[in-house]
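Title: Request for sanity check on Glutathione S-transferase prediction

Description:
We are preparing a figure and want to confirm that the structure record we downloaded matches what your pipeline produces today. Could someone re-run it with the sequence below and paste the raw structure tokens into this thread? We only need the token string, no images.
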Amino acid sequence: MELIVSPTSPFARKVQILAQEQGLADDITLRKLHPIENADELAAINPLGRVPALRTDNGQLVVDSSVICAWLDNLAVSRGKATLLGEGPSACLAIQQLQALADGIMESAFLMVMERGRPPALQSGFWQERRQAAVTRTLDYLESGDVELMPTDLHLGSIALACALGYLDFRHDDMQWRAGRPLLTAWFSHWEARESFLATQPPG
């Protein structure tokens, strides 16, 4: 299998971590493409022009990090591994809900980075404020305890959240997301030491 990634993409990192945790890393060849610098090459693989994208051994294209993770998890389960997507409706919903919240943080944080890269005259303070507010609200919601976070939990939702918090450290250290959020800080400290997390650190 070939996985097309950008080393700085938190969505690509999510897929890589799941692959490592499910024992699939040796089955995957990584191909690094920059969505802007290698735009034409990437678009020839994925019509959306986004990473990650997966090309299976039979040539099938799989796009979107959540879809790729689900496909890889199903492959791992077929080989005898336990699913990381949850067993039963309640567990599946909780995991998918946490993944959706984490993906929302990553999407907003990524768009903030893209906005900063535009010429100053074209940057929108309105949209930057809305995106940062979305990140802040979601972090506060997770800190509130309405979502159960266990440091020892390993599933797609926890993987996605770890990638989201790691991306905030990488691109938005000025946000100081740990301030006033001891629950999230303690939870993330366990993930920071995990082998799959360390092995997928973005460059720099």
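Thanks, this matches our download. The first strand starts at residue 2 and ends at 5.
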